[in-house]
């Protein structure tokens, strides 16, 4: 299988430090809608709100139940992976500083029959709120729309 899935596309965009704009343009030409942003907090609700706001502001999702619901579950799934199962930050003295990507499009590159999906990837640092006491983490959520 030479085609990339929406999750791998979102992961590449979240973790890329160099050629992100070319990669983004390449997939936008294949009808993916892409946004990359940053968030940081000791409050998981603020990270969820930042991602939901970006998705709405950038017109990745429209204001309807199915799209908002799919985005919400993709975020929670990604946050669960990023936090390693316990979606808690400040409550257990953890902070997060992360890059997030939101990708909307077909599940498999160049396969319109695979349907309309949304992927959210979180990549960054998590750990004690003291500098030098954090480590890398990644989480991904994918949901059908």
Describe this structure in words.
The chain is an alpha+beta fold. It has a domain at 41-92. Helix content is 35%, strand content 30%. It contains four helices and four strands. A four-stranded antiparallel sheet has the order 1-2-3-4, sandwiched between helices. Helix 3 packs across helix 4 (65-82). The longest helix is centred in the middle third of the chain and has 18 residues, at 65-82. It is globular and about 45 Å long.
Write the H/E string, N to C: HHEHHEEE
Quaternary status of these chains? single chain
> Could you describe the largest sheet, including whether it forms a barrel?
4 strands, antiparallel
Total number of β-strand segments?
A: 4
Count of helical regions: 4
Terminal Cα span: 24 Å
Mean pLDDT: 88
Global geometry: globular
Query: Helix coverage percent of residues?
Result: 25-40%
Query: Main sheet: which strands, in order across?
Result: 1-2-3-4
pLDDT below 50 for ≥5 consecutive residues: which ranges? none
Q: Which class best fits the helix and strand makeup?
A: alpha+beta
Strand content: 25-35%
Q: How large, in whole angstroms, is the Cα Rg?
A: 15 Å
Keywords: Activator, RNA-binding, Transcription, Transcription regulation
Subunit structure: Homohexamer.
InterPro entries: Regulatory_HutP (IPR015111), Regulatory_HutP_sf (IPR036482)
Protein name: Hut operon positive regulatory protein
């Amino acid at each position: 299988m030479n085609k990339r899935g929406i999750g791998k596309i979102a992961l590449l965009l979240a973790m890329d430090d160099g050629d992100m704009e070319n990669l983004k343009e390449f997939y936008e030409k294949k009808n993916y809608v892409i946004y990359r942003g940053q968030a940081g907090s000791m409050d998981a609700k603020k990270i969820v709100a930042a991602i939901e706001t970006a998705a709405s502001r950038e017109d990745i999702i429209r204001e309807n139940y199915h799209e908002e619901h799919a985005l919400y579950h993709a975020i929670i799934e990604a946050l669960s992976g990023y936090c390693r199962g316990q979606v808690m930050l400040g409550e257990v003295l953890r902070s997060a500083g992360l890059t997030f990507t939101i990708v909307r499009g077909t599940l498999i590159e160049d396969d319109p029959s695979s349907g309309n999906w949304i992927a959210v990837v979180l990549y960054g640092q998590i750990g004690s709120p003291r500098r030098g006491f954090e480590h890398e983490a990644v989480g991904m959520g994918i949901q059908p729309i």
